[in-house]
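We modelled the chain as a single entity of 159 amino acids. Its sequence is:
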Amino acid sequence: MLPCKHRWLENKPKGISMIGYADRILSPEQIRKIATHLMAALVVLTTYAMSTHNAWASNIYDARILQRIKFTSVQRPKVKRIIRKSDKEIAVVFRKYGINPNAKPVFEKLQRASSELQAIESKEKRQMKKILSPDQYKTYLGLLQATAARVIKATRTKP
């Protein structure tokens, strides 16, 4: 074994990697502290990514509600919150069924995921109806229909 300034490395059993040996290097309290810091960093990065770049922007599934309907200063944060929550739920369903939001839609995958996606859409519609004016809600429904038609059309086109 090569000379090392860390005595504890000299006692490391042969055949065990440093990763496998980490539980003997760090105390459980140190491991918890590192895990807490990593989770906090992940939350910050996720929040930053969501706020600076909408993951759904510029893909076929994006109805661009926030850009196409005029909202009051009271409505906008509420609508953003609803859309952000729906986007997160949709992302989970997409991962579950192997749907890539940036790729050409695959009809069979969307069909398998349809009941879960429809449940998310129904919940979003109920929430939006409470916030939007009748005219805004009508525009909102029209945007959803246009988006659905665009996705269905894309599943039928040849690559």
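As a brief sanity check on the tokenised model: Residues 55-156 form one domain. The longest helix spans residues 28-52.
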